[in-house]
Amino acid sequence: MTAEQTKILRTVPREKAFYFFTSIGNYTGLSTASLKEFAERMNEVSVKSLEFHLYRGDFEKWLDEVLNDTQLAEEIRRLRRINLAGEALRNQLYTVASRRLKRLTGQSDSLSI
Fold first, then answer.
1. What DSSP state is assigned to residue 67?
2. Is 64 within 8 Å of 73 (Cβ atoms)?
């Protein structure tokens, strides 16, 4: 595993974790401190929270500045530009985050034939 992969896959201290809100001041009680948790949370956090953070650019900023994953930040930025919402947004966020996690950990993302 490269130094870059190790840095992206690390668990950050709680003060650098991502905290999910549904609006300013309305904390959901959920947070994430790693890419693995981030992918998992996409299926747990309310769609309202996902939409709130996506359209503020919060996910991109955290992924880029805290986890140093510019590639995933750019993939999330592309999702923002196509104006997804609801379960379609949740599914795409989960897909791009889990695909990135699999690539970084060396797990196969395709079916063996």
1. S
2. yes
Write the pLDDT tens digit of every residue in 70-88.
999 999 999 999 999 999 9
> Where on the phi/psi map is residue 15: left (φ > 0), alpha (ψ -120 to 50), or beta?
alpha
Torsion of CA 85, 80, 65, 101, to 10 degrees: 70
Structure tokens that stand for 19 in this block:
């905290």
**68 in helix, strand or coil?**
coil
CA angle 50, 56, 60 (to 5 degrees): 80
Please tell me the pTM assigned to this model.
Answer: 0.90
What are the domain boundaries of the chain?
A: 3-105
DSSP characters over 7-50: HHHSPPPGGGSEEEEEETTEEEEEEESSHHHHHHHTTTS-HHHH
